[in-house]
Automatic annotation (TrEMBL):
This is Probable membrane transporter protein. Belongs to the 4-toluene sulfonate uptake permease (TSUP) (TC 2.A.102) family. It comes from Nonomuraea mesophila. It is found in: Cell membrane; Membrane. The chain crosses the membrane at residues 72-91, 98-116, 136-159, 180-198, 204-225, 232-250, 262-281. Its main location: membrane. InterPro entries: TM_pro_TauE-like, TSUP/Inactive_protease-like. PANTHER family: MEMBRANE TRANSPORTER PROTEIN MJ0441-RELATED (PTHR43701), MEMBRANE TRANSPORTER PROTEIN YTNM-RELATED (PTHR43701:SF12). Coiled coil: none annotated. It is a multi-pass membrane protein. Keywords: Cell membrane, Membrane, Transmembrane, Transmembrane helix. One of its GO terms (cellular component) is plasma membrane.
Length: 314
């Protein structure tokens, strides 16, 4: 019972982060399932089955708050579904001994990318309003869908930063569109896992609990996306994912690191992680202060211009 409650909380927190940041539900949930001993394919299958419900709830919530561009959803979601089905059948064909470290490496890379991307660069805002072309979105969706299924997550970590980096959509629209299109990826990946694994390796009570936690969090996250600082959240989530998957790799048969080496590695990662969060908070406050100064200057310039016009007319 305690394990199910924990999974429900993980589903809630993971969806809260995913709905606010446009990524990390699958990466976070799969990382936990691997940490408690679930085999790689079953972990990814469990998460993707739960995501059918959570992504539907999240997509509808974002749509109600005006955060979805349906043209982008179609252009990236359909190729993404093809990639997800291919990735699921590929992962299902690997042995557990091979799949677990491979998935941890993928998750570690995604976590490091999230950590560095949001800590160092924040959110680009240039080129807003320019169209996103199919020749960009289709390959992006195909690759992101394949990585998502093989890594137990990755649709958001690959898709969200790539579209944000283009600077052509407002962040809330990017996050809402990625979350809405993930519904197609979850269905395709789940179908691929059923073809490759069947249903005997999936614990459906875990699916239900993850789903309940995610569905509860979805509307809250869609509302929070307008208020929570994505830069800080990205740094925090990236650090958790890196730390957890380094732990998995160091304890795996591939490495089998001694306890002292593991401790040193954890301390170094935590120090980097804390420094990243502190830096993100500082930069976020600096950006907010700059925006406030610019707004005040613009207001003062506006008042000065009005005064000049009144003087001239007098």
């Amino acid at each position: 019972m305690r394990a199910l409650i924990l999974l429900g909380l993980v589903g809630f927190v993971a969806q809260l982060v995913d709905g606010s940041l446009g990524m990390a539900y699958g990466v976070t949930s799969t990382t936990l399932l691997l940490a408690i001993g679930t085999n790689a394919a079953a972990a990814s299958a469990t998460v993707h089955l739960a995501e059918i419900g959570t992504t539907l709830a999240s997509g509808l919530s974002h749509w109600r708050f005006g955060n979805v561009d349906w043209k982008v959803v179609a252009k990236i979601g359909i190729p993404g579904a093809v990639g997800a089905f291919a990735g699921a059948t590929f992962l299902s064909s690997l042995s557990t001994e091979i799949a677990a470290p491979i998935m941890s490496i993928i998750l570690l890379a995604l976590g490091a990318y999230i950590l560095v991307r949001f800590t160092v660069m924040g959110l680009p805002r240039g080129n807003l309003g320019k169209p996103l072309r199919k020749r960009f979105l289709a390959p992006l969706g195909l690759v992101a869908g394949f990585i998502d299924a093989t890594g137990g997550g990755g649709w958001g970590p690959v898709g969200t930063p790539a579209i944000l980096a283009s600077g052509r959509m407002a962040p809330r629209k990017v996050i809402g569109s990625i979350d809405a299109s993930e519904f197609l990826i979850a269905i395709a990946a789940s179908a691929g896992f059923f073809v490759g694994l069947g249903s005997e390796n999936i614990t459906f009570s875990w699916v239900v609990v993850l789903l309940i936690g995610g569905v509860i969090a979805a509307p809250i996250a869609a509302w929070l996306v307008r208020h929570i600082p994505p830069r800080i959240l990205g740094s925090a989530v990236g650090g958790i994912i890196v730390l957890t998957n380094v732990r998995t790799l160091l304890r795996s048969d591939w490495i089998g690191a001694p306890g002292g080496v593991q401790t040193v590695a954890y301390v170094v990662i935590v120090l980097i992680w804390v420094a990243a969060i502190v830096y993100s908070v500082r930069e976020y406050r600096r950006d907010k202060a700059s925006e406030s100064v610019e707004a005040i200057e613009a207001e003062l310039q506006g008042k000065t211009g009005d005064t000049k016009e009144e003087t001239a007319s007098a």
